Amino acid sequence: MNSLFDICGLVGSIGLVLGYLPQAIQTIRTRNTDGISLPGFIMMAVGSFGFLTQGLISANYYMALTNLITFVCSVIIFGIKMYNDHFKKR
Question: In the predicted model, what is the mean pLDDT of residues 37-61?
Fold first, then answer.
């Protein structure tokens, strides 16, 4: 049963990372954040940070690594979004 649990966690981790990376890469390349929800990415960053912390505390390194990657992607996208929104208003 433990191996099934680990397999599910690994599949989930891969899915989350592969879901975040294309958005982060496209945003970094194009700097286009018009269609990105700022509250949505703030909440994703908060959620990723919470699960990163939980993964570190429980020594679940799949969870920690996955959420470190998604947290960094969220922070990068958030930063670009804030930069774009700030300078578009001027």
Answer: 90
> What's the Cα-to-Cα distance from 62 to each of 21, 34, 41, rounded to whole Å?
17, 32, 22
Interatomic CA distance for residues 76 and 79, integer angstroms: 5
- CB < 8 Å & 24+ apart, contacts of 27-31: 27/76, 27/77, 27/80, 27/81, 28/76, 28/80, 31/80, 31/84
Residues 64-73 pLDDT 10s: 999 999 999 9
The CATH number for 7's domain is 1.20.1280.290
- Give the single-character DSSP code of 57: H
